[in-house]
Write a structure and sequence with these properties.
The protein has seven helices and 14 strands. The chain is α+β, with helices and mostly antiparallel strands. The strands form two sheets. Strands 1, 2, 3, 5, 6, 7, 8, 11 and 12 form a nine-stranded mixed beta sheet that branches. Strands 4-14-13-9-10 form a five-stranded mixed beta sheet. Strand 13 and strand 14 form a beta hairpin.
Length: 261
């Protein structure tokens, strides 16, 4: 499919009729072409989503490594402890509870955990709404990349200033890696998870992403003000209008509630 066709499917929430037929390198090139179309019509990139960092779900989806896509001003929302999201024009939406990073600087050329953490301003709980335009969520890695990293919406909750936490990268990541989450739908428990599910810890996931982004020809590096959501702590769960979901994160992340319309 052409970039214009891919964007039309994304806008309408309509399924693809066939796989992308691309390899991973071609898929990122095509996704960047769609990104250029969205910028040209007035949308503003606000950061990135990193997907498939949770190794526990790789066999379920048949994708065995992280991928990434763009987060937009039109797909990003902020709240304190509770927010509302519309599922209109999404395709087979699913919910993922994640740790979101807010950047205050571009990471250095060869970052480690310490120098990367120094470029982070805040962390927050987040709900990413992912989607697939492939029927029944059947795809390969290149399809997920071509499909904008499966990104549909991102709700970011209460921010925590990282200056109030450990400034040592390994200790900071260990804190998040040990944190647990209980996910509920309409008050009923659905799933549990732990920060270590995402490449051993969210800061490790961010480090992996920075390196992968810089290995992609034509990709735009992280900038001050960007948000990066680093992958789901649980499985991805189908959602529908009228449902209310709650992610009960351990500290330092606060709980987050979303209601779908």
């Amino acid at each position: 499919m052409t970039p214009e066709q891919l964007l039309a499917h994304s806008d309408a929430g309509t399924p693809w009729t066939e796989p992308s037929g691309l390899d991973v390198a071609q898929a990122y090139e095509r996704a960047l072409q769609v990104r250029a179309l969205r910028i040209a019509r007035g949308e503003t990139p606000r950061g990135y989503k990193v997907g498939f960092t949770n190794r526990t779900i790789w066999p379920r989806y048949g994708v065995y490594g992280p991928i990434w896509g763009t987060v937009w001003d039109t797909t990003l929302s902020f709240c304190d402890e509770a927010g509302e999201l519309s599922l209109a024009r999404t395709s087979q939406p699913r919910l993922e509870p994640e740790c979101v990073f807010g950047m205050k600087a571009t990471p250095p050329a060869a970052p480690d955990l310490d120098s990367l953490l120094a470029c982070v301003e805040w962390i927050a709980p987040g709900f990413e709404i992912v989607q697939s335009h492939m029927p029944d969520w059947k795809f390969d890695a290149a399809d997920t990349i071509t499909d904008g990293g499966l990104h549909a919406r991102l709700l970011v909750g209460r921010k925590v200033d990282v200056a109030t936490l450990s400034r040592e990268g390994a200790a900071f990541d260990a804190l998040l890696a040990a944190a647990r989450i209980t996910l509920t739908r309409n008050g009923e428990p659905v799933d549990t998870g732990v920060g270590a599910n995402v490449l051993d810890g969210p800061l490790h996931a961010l480090l992996h992403f920075v390196r992968a982004l810089r290995d992609c020809p034509g990709a735009t590096d992280l900038q001050a003000g960007d948000v990066v959501t680093t992958g789901t702590w649980t499985d991805a769960w189908p959602v529908a209008p009228g449902e209310q979901w709650r992610a009960g994160f351990d500290a330092p992340l606060s709980p987050l509630v979303v209601r779908f319309t």
